[in-house]
Amino acid sequence: MKISNVRTRVFEWKGHTVPPTAHFCSNAMDELWDKGDSMGTFRFHGWTTVEIETDTGLVGLGNVALAPRIAKAIIDQYLAPLVIGQDPFDYEYLWQRMYRSTHAWGRKGIGMAAISGVDIAIWDIMGKAVGQPVFKLLGGRTKEKIPCYASKLYRTDLKSMQEEAQSYLDQGFTAMKMRFGYGPKDGPTGMRANLDSVAAVREVIGEDVDLMLECYMGWNLEYTKRMLPKLERFQPRWLEEPVLADDIDGYAELNRLTSIPISGGEHEFTHYGFRQLLEKRAVSVVQYDTNRVGGITAARKINAIAESFSVPVIPHAGQMHNYHLTMATLASPMAEFFPVHDVEIGNELFYYLFEGDPEPVDGFLDLDDETPGLGLTLNERYFDQFHITE
Ligand SMILES: O=C(O)[C@H](O)[C@H](O)[C@@H](O)CO
Ligand SMILES: [Mg+2]
Question: Is the C-beta atom of 179 inside 6 A of ligand 1?
Fold first, then answer.
């Protein structure tokens, strides 16, 4: 079998979107005086699909969510020529070929995200070729079902957040993640607002539901050191991305500071990047996203490294490209799940673009033993809601 063609398309949502609101989610732009719509550069309203065809008629489907237009250009110009004519089962060789040939600029960030999209499509092909779901190629069914946590609760008014948290309880979730809306520039009143939002959610969900707290790179080391002791009474499952992804020593200092586990990794790349995070004990939860980190080929290596450090892997985003890895390793105890709703931040756009992702039932997801490959197809019902660039 040989790869005969690589087709990339950029899907940019032109349908209804929920307008941004102030303090929606703390983020890396908040430190700037002219931050404007600070989440503007962190919306996922576009996605790149990667369809890799073989000379035997199979089509593998991959995806990239970061900088979709750039990802398409990288795949079209640099990566497609490296894999066309090759055997997809030589996936490690093909990964090294893509990694090494773009090493000067592609080992982190959008270069590695583009490699991820190609790699995911290659694994979809391999599963389809042998008639097995991808997780069966990675280690098989290590769980009867995958526990998952509801992930939204962006900062709005406290009553709306309490109603949203209650809705996840009503759906049977026993874990959920909320976002902070304030950071260092908002001073003591912002701290109070942050603490009040956690108290409000805890008031609804009680003490026996896991609550994760998301800073999305919007705090800094000094502010987080002040916040952590104040947050301990809420017993969060983890505090996520309090500092910039490059501040690995800051992560490590925070992770040693209190009983609250620090999580991160959705903005880290390759098994080399995660070796650094783990050797420095910088995170207590590894959160790569397979469509960024280097695809399934890199993610499975990270799973093994994390397992050797006894650090759990709970990938960013849920979504099929991550679920197969979580199913195939005991090192990954659960998955993130983005509730489906109107397009807002854009994490939920995945459901408008693809069909096949499992629906959670009582806080659990399952994958089908009989569906070969990743189990995803493009959702053509919404194509008219997208501007599509071939
Ligand atoms: O952990 C997450 O889910 C990510 O940080 C979100 O996708 C991001 O959009 C901010 O909430
Ligand atoms: Mg996050």
Answer: yes
**One domain, residues 215 and 245:** yes
Q: Is residue 217 in contact with ligand 1, taking CB distance under 6 Å?
A: no
The Å distance, Cα 82 to ligand 2 centre, comes to 32
Instruction: Provide the token pair at 121.
Output: 């499509």
**Structural domain span for residue 82:** 3-131
CATH number at residue 12: 3.30.390.10
Please name the residue that has the structure tokens 């079902």: 145
12, 387 Cβ separation under 8 angstroms: yes
Q: How many domains does the chain have?
A: 2
The verdict on 216 and 188 lying in the same domain is yes
Ion ligand 2: residues, CB < 5 A: 240
For residue 57, the CA-to-ligand 1 centroid distance in Å is 36
Query: Does any ligand 1 atom lie closer than 6 A to the CB of residue 263?
Result: no
Q: Which of 23, 148, 151 best tests ligand 1's pocket when mutated (most atoms within 8 Å of CB)?
A: 151
What is the complex's ipTM, to 2 decimals? 0.96
**209-252 pLDDT tens trace:** 999 999 999 999 999 999 999 999 999 999 999 999 999 999 99
Q: Measured between alpha carbons, how far is 246 from 344 in angstroms, rounded to an integer? A: 27
Query: Does ligand 1 have an atom closer than 6 angstroms to the CB of 266?
Result: yes
CA dihedral sign of residues 190, 193, 199, 200: negative
Neighbours of 15 (CB within 10 A): 13
For the chain, list residues with pLDDT below 50. none
For 27, 29, 43, 68, the CA distances from 40, given in Å and listed in that order, are 10, 9, 6, 15
Active-site annotation, residues: 316
Structure tokens at 361: 């039932």
Q: What is the pLDDT of residue 364?
A: 98
